[in-house]
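Predict the assembly for these two chains.
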Amino acid sequence: MKPVGVAILGLGVVGSGTYKILRDHKEFYRRTQGIDLTVECVLEINKQKALDLGIEEGRIYDNIAEVVSNPAVDIVVEVIGGVEPAKSFVLAALHSGKTVVTSNKELFCKYWHELETAARRTNAGLYFEASCVGGVPIIRTLVDGMQANVIHSLTGIINGTTNYILTRMTREGSGYQEVLKDAQALGYAEANPSADVDGYDAAYKLSILASLAFHTKVPLEKVYREGIAQISGQDIAYGDELGYVLKLLAIGKFDGNRSIEARVHPAFVRKDHPLAAVNDSFNAVYLQGDSVGDIMLYGRGAGALPTGSAIVSDVIYAATHGEAKYASFKNTEKAEVGVKFVTDFRSRYYIRFTAKDRAGVLAKVAGILGKYSISIAELVQKGEDAESVPVILITHETTELSVRSAVGKIAALDGVESVDSVIRVEG
Amino acid sequence: MKPVGVAILGLGVVGSGTYKILRDHKEFYRRTQGIDLTVECVLEINKQKALDLGIEEGRIYDNIAEVVSNPAVDIVVEVIGGVEPAKSFVLAALHSGKTVVTSNKELFCKYWHELETAARRTNAGLYFEASCVGGVPIIRTLVDGMQANVIHSLTGIINGTTNYILTRMTREGSGYQEVLKDAQALGYAEANPSADVDGYDAAYKLSILASLAFHTKVPLEKVYREGIAQISGQDIAYGDELGYVLKLLAIGKFDGNRSIEARVHPAFVRKDHPLAAVNDSFNAVYLQGDSVGDIMLYGRGAGALPTGSAIVSDVIYAATHGEAKYASFKNTEKAEVGVKFVTDFRSRYYIRFTAKDRAGVLAKVAGILGKYSISIAELVQKGEDAESVPVILITHETTELSVRSAVGKIAALDGVESVDSVIRVEG
């Protein structure tokens, strides 16, 4: 039986989950995979944490040099997160020829090229299934399952924290701040929630997934990003009446030629779309391929064991496949020459504004929209008896710039008190 | 660039789709996969069919010997379906050392061992992603994406024809025969629909998927099977009122030790379960792994291009991975020693009977159920004023044998005119 030694860097939530999976499935993997996986050592400064997991003292290291110089270590699992010291540790492992498995989306999306170059130099493997959408094998699917397809779009709910917050706002009619506080108390959101609620986490993942889906680097700085902090419960409620659910979507689109869109922002999704039913901390990715048509993968996007499942899946893959695998596109440094990143997206839009003088204002609004070739799919006025009334309109497909220009003009109208929300409508 | 020669056996729906994908993506695969895929020849008796697709006359063969003796052919795609002549052709290809990619679930599920033995002998690859759930990469997911998990259950809607029929019966309130006729006219069901509507197709696929999920052969004859021909629109309507949708489910369960259940039958699914929203000819597989938790894959289960997508995905996988891959469990001939196939399933049950004498009969029914330790979760009486009224009850979880025994006794009661339906309630 082939012995395979694993080192785990960092015993946080995911590191501990990974350790437990490897420990508890040793016999199972011997039987089903024909490999003998052993956690050879862990790198963890908090020694007690490791001891509490039952790890022998001699296997608890506090120095990366010890890990990479241990000849029994074949595969290094990096689950520290963030850029440093994770990056230096991963590079040290790759330089010494050890295969790396990482869940670190920020590191991977920012330094993919540097990591892959180091890996190729020593022919070490480099695996990152756990960096995107936790236990859902989305990277394997893109690389080994849908590779026959030109993928035209990828639409994902790929951040569990924001989906949890939006689901509770939708169910309970509560406000953003209130639910966020509760999510923090329950451990679903960090004390500093910015990485999640401002869309950075989703943008990291989208950069990685879109790169694989479209066969060219989609750099992080090309990903348009808006978070959920500005979302009002009022819009969720109005959307519900109109048949929509609000989600933080990560969207990648490819025209099959040179144009790519990559954007993370809140969006309304029709209730009968499969993504609308993805609730709580569940994640999903909806893909459209030119041959396979529509396909969706759904599951837990985070958590100790789901993410651990993806890590161990990569460990087993690395241990049972002969050749090291890298990105499925050539240049991980930058986008292919000629690729154009679209910023003037096409979408439908939900626009809510407060009208003071209903009689006159709607004709003017319609006039402005008409000037920008924006046609109205639906228009709803609320609270008939009040002096100031909310007006909601949903447009047919149009462009981002048209909407921004039109909204500027609408906000300046005499009969309009305020333009309160502009939310894209997708799917 | 590595040249890879493909032969396609059979230009039916899937064969033609596969040909078109390979033809239209030649440059795309050169660029993204670094391989030069060419359809070297096709085996098709109906020469005109091949000519119509634009295939040169010299590449249209009518004899398998020509295919296997062509040194330019590396990979043989079998999309004929059925056992013979597909089996002989596949064996001939494997004997000559050519990798085989097949969509043939019946052949694969019945002769897996014979095919794999032949493949191992010449070190030829043997790939069958397209045999189950069309374009959805369920086999890759089981083998390379969820292999870190002990999989405890697999619940699938894996036959498009029956899902199309049940979806229309549900939406339109139409009867089975009526929708079936329409489905046949539209090409969604075969002239002889038995393979689909009687559950054979789903049973073939479940045998394959459960074998991979549970790491032991689950022979076809161990798959319990019931079709949808007996389903009445009445039960679909009553189920709807109670919050359920009727689906033909393929269910595999594993207790983590030795017990396996494998069954295909109609079942009610709660409307808020992700499988309930899988409509028309879409398919989905819902899995529960011990680490990853719940996961679902959703997509097109059939059709020329979706199934072609899975075939070409296998072709690319075979062409770009060094070693030939076989089943992820050892003995493809028969179940592991000690495995027990459970036939006395545990489930909840929907039972509909017609009561003549309501006053007296319900107490007696409750008494019979109590005797078999079956507890009632819900009970609904319909049509209060009629002399004979339908009564519907939904049980808590119990066993198949208890229900069968109890139903026999209920049917024999004086006040019961008939027991009209017994439908399992899952998910």
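Chain B touches chain A through 53 residues (CB under 8 Å). Chain B has 15 helices and 18 strands.
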